[in-house]
Amino acid sequence: MNPLLLHADLWDDYALIDSGNGEKLERFGPYFFSRPEPQAFWSKKLSPKVWKNVSGKFLTSSSADNDDVTGKWSLDADLPNKWELKFDHIKFFATPTPFRHLGFFPDQSPHWLWAANKIKHLNQLAINNAPPKILNLFGYSGLASLHAAYNGASVTHVDASKKAINFAFENRNLSSLQHLPIKFITDDAIKFVQREVRRNNKYDGVILDPPKYGRGPNGEKWELFKDLPSLLKLIPQVLSTNPIFIILNSYAIRSSYLSLHHALKEVMQNFPGQVYSGELSIKEKQSNPRQISTAIFARWEGQ
Fold first, then answer.
1. Which of 202, 257, 210 is nearest to 232 (CA)?
2. 77 Cβ partners below 8 Å, 6+ apart?
3. In whole angstroms, what is the distance from residue 95 CA to residue 116 CA?
4. Mind listing the pLDDT tens digit for each residue in 158-172?
């Protein structure tokens, strides 16, 4: 069980420029931003002048050793509220959010590409003469859903936040993908899956990117370490006879990829396949680049 270390590549509209001293300098389209990065123990390579020439800086209001760092943005007055980016035929908006990210997670692109290959392979087999059905729980701004649908899947996109669902709609419309089979649903993830079990609805693949904490549309509480085991036990009940993949991702960096690996392996023990796990990362765009681990994951691949 050797861990995989995947890093975001094939990007034109995103780059990690430099990192160090607890910060990272990134480019999102034409704009540069500096954000906290507690894992960057090393020194910065680029000059202070480069680091100061940014369109936005996230100012923390809690200690740097806390993975729930809070704070606020200091943004240039001429920075637009949102701007267009692109990855592999998918267009979407970037915008600074109160949660210190910019409305999407570029490090997840290896998952999108891997899922797309599985979807296209199943379509080539044309076993059911129907597109693979993918369930994307905690779908947020929709990039994983859009990418999967663009590559031939029928997607059910679920998120508890109406704001996130509206963001996903905007990204879909920007990409002119209104014709693709994507259902956008505002719901609590566990309650939705429980209903799908009762309806006997089945999926060929599942994507899960649960937050550490969250709220459902009716005030339901989500706590990763408490609720994820319950959700995972439901997943096999909504899988088709021969599912192709499950992607489980987590930004709760105080846990380990091993915890996701063994949890996913346990719930998928009755399906022929293999679990792989490791970390997602971003890599600097310069000589002798450093890598920053951003998330842990486990992926199940059907035979």
1. 210
2. none
3. 26
4. 999 999 999 999 999
Q: What token pair was written down for 209?
A: 């990117």
Q: Is 90 exposed, middle or buried (0-12, 13-18, 19+ CB in 10 A)?
A: buried
Write down the pLDDT at residue 127. Answer: 67
Distance from C-alpha of 60 to C-alpha of 74, rounded to nearest angstrom: 11
Query: For residue 244, how many C-alpha atoms fall within 13 Å in the half-sphere facing its CB?
Result: 22
What does 214-244 look like in DSSP terms, one character per residue? Answer: EE-TTS-EEEHHHHHHHHHHHGGGGB-SS--
C-alpha dihedral (143, 99, 282, 150), degrees to nearest 10: 0
Interatomic CA distance for residues 115 and 204, integer angstroms:
11
Listing DSSP states for 129-178 in one string gives SSPPEEEEET-TTSHHHHHHHHTT-EEEEEES-HHHHHHHHHHHHHTT-T
Q: Which amino acid is at 162?
A: K
Question: Residues 6 or more apart from 6 whose CB is under 8 A from it?
Answer: 110, 111, 278, 279, 280, 281, 297
pTM recorded for the entire structure: 0.94
Quote the Cα angle for 139-141-142, to 5°.
Answer: 60
